[in-house]
Amino acid sequence: MIVRDIKDLKNTDKDVHDAQWTSVRMLLASDGMGFSFHITTLEAGSEHTFHYKNHFESVYCMSGAGSITDIATGETHAIRPGVMYALDQHDKHILRADEELVMACCFNPPVTGNEVHQADGSYAAAE
Questions:
Q1: Residue 1's pLDDT band (boundaries 50, 70, 90)?
Q2: Per residue in 35-62, pLDDT tens?
Q3: What pLDDT, in 10s, does the model give residues 71-119?
Q4: Are 42 and 101 contacting, i.e. CB atoms less than 8 angstroms apart?
Q5: How far apart are CA 21 and CA 32, in angstroms?
Q6: Alpha-carbon distance 39 to 44, whole Å?
Q7: Could you tell me the CA-to-CA distances from 108 to 7, 43, 102, 103, 118 in Å, in that order?
Q8: Helix (H) or strand (E) holding 48
Q9: How many angstroms separate the Cα of 36 from the Cα of each of 23, 33, 76, 94?
Q10: Residues 6 or more apart from 27 whose CB is under 8 A from it?
């Protein structure tokens, strides 16, 4: 059994920061679960273009407000507490945080914890 408290992971190597977001990686590939689990906070007023072409991701909004736009279709959906989205087609998207967004995220394959976004908004394929 794995039990972790997010408070214990803050300010460690599992507390990853990038441009206007923070992600606390609570489960990683090394945990052997077949997916990784993160609590990600996006700053209010921020906009992010992501394209997880090597990963599937599902996201559940815990707090805040914003939107997600599917770049291929132009369709935009509101994000608010209780809304989940899944990038089941490796969908390139724009995520906007009108308010600070706190999201619970799962990645498959799991991330290792050392990933950074590449220029195209993706993480590199697992080695």
A1: very high
A2: 999 999 999 999 999 898 888 999 999 9
A3: 999 999 999 999 999 999 999 999 999 999 999 999 999 988 766 555 6
A4: yes
A5: 26
A6: 16
A7: 24, 25, 20, 16, 18
A8: strand 47-50
A9: 12, 7, 26, 22
A10: 2, 4, 33, 35, 36, 37, 110
Structural tokens at position 120: 């195209």
Question: The pTM is what?
Answer: 0.89
- Letter for the amino acid at 58? S
Which tokens sit at 27? 């489960």
- Would you state the structure tokens that stand for residue 69, as one six-digit string? 């736009």
Tokens of 77: 């959906």
